[in-house]
Design goal:
The protein is mainly beta. It contains 8 helices and 67 strands. The protein folds into 5 domains: 99 residues, no CATH class; 233 residues, Porin, CATH 2.40.160; 83 residues, no CATH class; 257 residues, TonB-dependent receptor, beta-barrel domain (Maltoporin, Chain A, Beta Barrel); 136 residues, monomeric porin ompg (Porin, Beta Barrel), CATH 2.40.160.40. Strand 47 and strand 48 form a beta hairpin. The chain is globular.
């Protein structure tokens, strides 16, 4: 790997260094020899730069032959020369801080006066390091790991890891940055922070003032003209070049995902999650981390728990924080890249631009090819029959389907063991066949795969993983079919010209063409693949107006005309996020030809004042036309006042409907010292009618919204915002507007900081929406939304009392969770599968059991399909009090109180359908964890009391903790209760001997469905004591004794398990270089029952009987950069066999 890296860097250096400043001339003198082969001394030679002389005579190129790769040449046989001649070679080479050869040792010839002859002497050179190769300008860090694991119940496995990060200058004008690894982490980053750490990013980047090259993971962001917008996360090779006003790039890579946009209407009282879907409505997609752009009413938002939204990339779900109120009027738009893991997706892109005539004329081109490799499917297997279906489907996805029903495999007795049975019945007199989930029944001979097809388009609903229920034709959202994925190929090219004869005036023209093959397997409909688009415009920026030497301000004008053919496709979205709304084209066909003309006039009479007027004309197909008039008045002195008013009018019509839409928005404020009062307004009136009719249709709307506000800024560390919202909504009833609802709201945002003692942020939004009587009679209910987020950090009395307060509550929709066991490599899991105990052909939850060793499964939870409206509350507090810092004096009371300190932690999380919000918002704990209403809830309290907390001679800790939980899984409700009461004493008897003793009483209760093996009611008492003896500083000998008695009262006959354990250990440290640790442990479990099921929590993973464990661990560091680790452990549990496991690893740092 290191050799490959060095070769890459060397090659890149050769490529990027070929310019005048990086070359110099070298002259070699070589004696003529009989072999007629002469080697050059430099590391490289620029071809054609050599000048060869024999003596003072230049020889021509016909008189010698040269091998530039091997840096050697020979003279022609026809050339006359003497063995006594000297050849002088002058040539140009590249500046490189590299030697031609590197060696750890070399032979030198020396004269020995005693022997009277020359001898060869071995001379060692300095070690080869990265500094000796690249110089000291490279900063680097990384590691190489090699190891193995072998054991009684596992084969020999090798572990290998490599990580390297380095950056610096290879030469004066070449910089390198790289992050390399051969490890593959499938972990997606969590989408709850503004900045994501991309752990998988591996790349080499080499920069030069005229070029940049990247090999590995990178993000391609380019814009060429109107249509050539591209933003992709890629893995491959990219080069960028620039020279004297010209630039170019190329990109050849594998694309991590495909681009798509979603538009979703918000819901009152639902902050999320809002689920994203693929271009065909697919739900089983994964969002590529960091590629999403989220817009609320046209405004781009920021990711993060403390900002605007969080995202679950694996489940493609977005939830908005309490800082952003989501209502039924909210317009949510999402751009993102996603993968559906169907085909390997390849990408090629290239483009360039150049300027002429002192940058007055700019010309750019771009070509992009992005497509699925239909010969390389990922998570699917395509049979010949499947490929035939795809070839016949053409571009019609609905024809690229196959049945999801298949016969189950036979068991050892020759019976089919499926989980669905076929049911033939009559529904409304029509013969109907459907499949019933009935695992274990002899009639269940089928396995069925279901696909999400959209709401109201299917016949089944999803109850849980693998369980689909028939609900009637067109009453569900799943069908027993499998869509065969259509491999796509998109090609796009564009040419752009921009001419600017002056700084203020410019003309531009864009021409783009595209080809979109929706099914590479099929040649059907390929004549519909291509399309084109063009765009022409002119722009005059801020041209000064003068009349009789009077300054009348500045004026700017613009005009453009754009045509897009219906079949044209672009790599990414190039219109503004609200473009469809601007021209009221929602619901029109995007496959029709589109013509757009826009003209604009900007007049600014003086700085801070402007009037921006625009006219737009849109025609889509032969049916739809739209005219838009927009005016924006701005008068501002940002530090004192602001007047911003927008008036927008859109008139549109098609063959049946005529629409008139007036929109008004404004923001006005005035600043006086620290006060800033203001007003926001948002008014819309959209009237849509059938042509030749005065009656409004249902798509009409009208609303007015006023938001007066007051800000107090930077008043002794205090910032305050209060905003009041008033909104009236009107919808058509019987052809005319009637009031639908009235909404009022309050928003308060407080930020306070005082030195380092107090830092507090508080945000609350309250919105009440009340419907008119007519809509109440039609089922609409008044609703209230309350969003709160508060976070404070407090320090009092010189930090002797410090604490944190956190409170967040919002209304959402959430799903019940389902438990899924995922198989992993043996030894990496924490569950084992006991087998199909009930013979129903499926792996039920209770057939998995926790284990300490050799687990092959991990437990994950995934959300089910059905969403429930809930209140989501999270609150916590932590307080630490140290009396020593509070109490002064040496009296008796101070002597008693000073050693005391406490720490209190209280945390509540509740996800509930409780209809009375006040009970949850005001923490009425009696309403929490209600079996009928709560979906997920936890309640945790812990109180620690310390005496001499930081003393190494004697200290006490008294702990009380309690945890209650309730979770409604798709399979049933699970309630948990745990309580701990304990005392810990740490004391030092003499300098060499110390002891740690713990005594406690624990309760661990879980109530789940009756078939679950999670049910338990355990009470345990334990006593542990640990003696440590240090005869020398680097030697420690330990003895640990433990005893516990645990009773599980859940079985009809309670199970009692007694444990007694002994353990000894020996630790030896090698003066900061390493450590040797040897442990022997014996645990004996005695049980009063051999019939009851023994929960893992009762035995701690041990077996009833005697359990022996022995472990040896050795760590040692060789020098500063090499760390070695070796371990061996063995165990004998009960009457089982002895299990041995050995591991070794060497890790080198550099």
């Amino acid at each position: 790997m290191v050799k490959i890296i060095l070769l890459l860097l060397l090659s890149a250096r050769l490529i990027f260094s070929q310019n005048y400043e990086s070359t110099f001339t070298v002259t070699d003198s070589i004696q003529v020899n009989l072999k007629n082969l002469y080697k050059l001394n430099a590391l490289t030679i620029i071809p054609g730069s050599e000048i060869i002389k024999i003596g003072s005579k230049n020889i021509s190129i016909e008189d010698y032959s040269i091998n530039y790769h091997r840096l050697e040449f020979s003279l022609s046989d026809s050339l006359e020369y003497s063995l006594f001649d000297t050849i002088i070679v002058s040539y140009k080479t590249i500046k490189l801080s590299l030697k031609k050869e590197y060696s750890k040792r070399e032979l030198q010839y020396r004269y020995d006066s005693l022997l009277g002859d020359t001898i060869r002497v071995l001379q060692r050179s300095s070690a080869i390091t990265t500094e000796s190769i690249f110089g000291s300008n490279i900063e680097r860090s990384g590691s190489i790991v090699r190891g193995f694991t072998i054991g009684t119940n596992k084969d020999l496995s090798l572990q290998s890891g490599f990580r390297l990060q380095f950056s610096g200058n290879l030469s004066e004008d070449i910089e390198v940055v790289a992050a390399l690894t051969d490890e593959n982490s499938p972990i997606q980053p969590e989408g709850n922070t503004e900045r994501l750490e991309d752990l998988e990013k591996v790349f080499i980047q080499i920069k030069h003032k005229n070029a940049t090259g990247i090999f590995g993971d990178y993000e391609l962001i380019k814009k060429s003209g109107e249509f050539g917008v591209i933003n992709r996360k890629l893995q491959g090779l990219m080069g960028e070049f620039n020279y004297e006003g010209s630039d170019a790039y190329f990109s050849f890579a594998s694309s991590k995902g495909k681009f798509h946009s979603n538009k979703i209407n918000g819901e009152d009282g639902v902050q999320g999650p809002y689920r994203l879907s693929g271009e065909n409505g697919e739900r089983d997609i994964i969002i590529i981390a960091g590629t999403e752009k989220v817009f609320l009413d046209g405004e781009e938002l920021r990711r993060g728990e403390g900002n605007d939204y969080t995202i679950d990339y694996s489940n493609a779900q977005i939830t908005f924080t309490p800082k952003r109120l989501i209502t039924s009027a909210s317009r949510l738009s999402f751009d993102f890249q996603y993968t559906d893991r169907r085909y390997v997706r390849n990408f090629f892109g290239a483009g360039g631009s150049s300027s002429f005539f002192s940058n007055k004329l700019k010309f750019s081109v771009q070509y992009i090819r992005e497509g699925d490799d239909y010969s390389s499917p990922i998570d699917i297997l395509l049979s010949d029959e499947d490929k035939s279906v795809l070839r016949e489907a053409g571009n019609n996805r609905e024809k690229a389907v196959k049945s999801g029903v298949s016969f189950a495999e036979k068991d050892s007795l020759g019976y089919y063991r499926g989980i669905y049975e076929r049911v033939d019945t009559l529904i409304n007199g029509d013969s109907t066949v459907f499949y019933k989930y009935n695992p274990g029944d002899v009639k269940s001979i089928y396995n069925v795969s279901f696909t999400y097809v959209g709401e109201g388009r299917g016949s089944y609903i999803k109850e849980s993983v693998g369980y689909f229920k028939f609900v009637g034709q067109l009453s569900g959202n799943y069908l027993p079919i499998i869509y065969l994925p259509l491999p796509e190929l998109k090609q796009f090219s564009t040419v752009s010209i921009n001419y600017s004869p002056s700084q203020d005036f410019s003309l531009y023209f864009d021409l783009a063409g595209s080809s979109f093959d929706r099914n590479r397997f099929s040649e059907l409909n390929d004549n519909e693949n291509t399309g084109f688009a063009r765009n022409f415009g002119l722009k005059l920026n801020s041209y000064p107006l003068n009349l009789f030497n009077n300054n009348l301000g500045k004026v700017g004008i613009s005009f453009r005309e754009r045509f897009i053919e219906g079949r044209f496709t672009s790599p990414d979205r190039f219109n503004s996020i609200e473009f469809e709304r601007d021209y009221n084209i929602q619901g029109t066909s995007s496959k029709a030809n589109e013509t757009l003309r826009e003209a604009g006039l900007v007049y600014s009479p003086f700085d801070g004042a402007s009037i921006n007027s625009n006219y737009g004309y849109m025609k889509r197909g032969v049916e739809f036309k739209s005219n838009r008039f927009s005016n924006n008045l701005s008068l501002t002195n940002q530090s004192v006042y602001n007047i911003n008013y927008v008036f927008d009018y859109v008139s549109s019509e098609n063959l049946l409907i005529k629409s008139d839409w007036i929109r008004q928005k404004g923001n006005f404020f005035y600043t006086y010292q620290f006060l800033k009062p203001g007003l926001e307004l948002n008014i819309e009136n959209k009237k849509e009618r059938i042509i030749k009719s005065d009656s409004l249709i249902n798509s009409s709307l009208r609303f007015s919204e006023l938001n007066p506000y007051l800000e107090i800024n930077k008043l002794s560390g205090f910032n305050f915002i209060y905003k009041f919202t008033f909104r009236d909504d009107y919808l058509p009833i019987l052809g005319r507007f009637e009031k639908e609802s009235n909404s009022t709201g309050h928003m308060i945002d407080i930020d306070y900081k005082y030195k380092s003692d107090i830092s507090s942020q508080f945000n609350v939004t309250v919105r009440d929406k009340k419907y008119s009587d007519y809509y109440k009679l039609n089922g609409q209910l008044d609703n209230q939304t309350i969003l709160v987020r508060s976070q404070s950090r407090l320090n009092f009395l010189d930090k002797s009392i410090n604490g944190d307060l956190f409170y967040e509550v919002s209304t959402q929709k959430t799903a019940k969770l389902e438990k899924v066991f995922v198989q992993v490599q043996k030894g990496n899991g924490n569950y084992i599968y006991l087998g199909d105990l009930n013979g129903n052909g499926i792996a039920d939850e209770y057939e998995y059991e926790p284990t300490l060793y050799d687990g092959e499964f991990i437990l994950i939870t995934i959300p089910s399909d059905k969403l429930y409206p809930v209140i989501d509350l999270k609150t916590s507090t932590r307080w630490k009090i140290e009396m020593e810092e509070i109490i002064d004096g040496d009296n008796l009371l101070a002597t008693i109180v000073k050693p005391l300190s406490t720490e209190t932690v209280f945390r509540i999380e509740e996800n509930t359908q409780e209809p009375d919000y006040k009970k949850i918002y005001l923490l009425n704990l009696s309403a929490f964890q209600n079996e009928k209403l709560t979906l997920r809830g936890t309640n945790f309290f812990q109180q620690d009391f310390f005496i001499f907390e930081n003393s190494s001679s004697l200290s006490f800790r008294l702990r009380y903790s309690q945890r209650r939980s309730l979770t409604q899984f798709a399979s049933g409700t699970e309630k948990g209760f745990a309580k701990e009461r304990g005392v810990r004493i740490r004391f030092r008897m003499i300098e060499e001997i110390s002891n740690l003793t713990e005594f406690g009483v624990n309760d661990d209760n879980v109530a789940a469905i009756i078939t679950s093996n999670r049910n338990r009611k355990i009470n345990s008492n334990f006593l542990n004591t640990d003696f440590s003896y240090r005869p020398q500083r680097n030697i420690e000998v330990g003895l640990k004794l433990k005893y516990s008695e645990s009773t599980d009262s859940y079985p009809q006959k309670p199970t009692i398990v007694n444990l007694n354990g002994q353990g000894i250990r020996f630790n030896y440290s090698f003066s900061g270089l390493g450590r040797l640790r040897i442990e022997l442990e014996r645990n004996e479990l005695l049980s009063n029952s051999t019939e009851n099921f023994l929960p893992y929590e009762l035995t701690g993973g041990n077996t009833v009987g005697k359990n022996y464990f022995w472990r040896v661990n050795f760590d040692y560091r060789f020098g500063l950069n090499i760390q070695s680790t070796a371990s061996y452990d063995g165990r004998l549990q009960g009457t089982g066999r002895i299990i041995h496991t050995a591991r070794a690893e060497v890790r080198a740092f550099f």
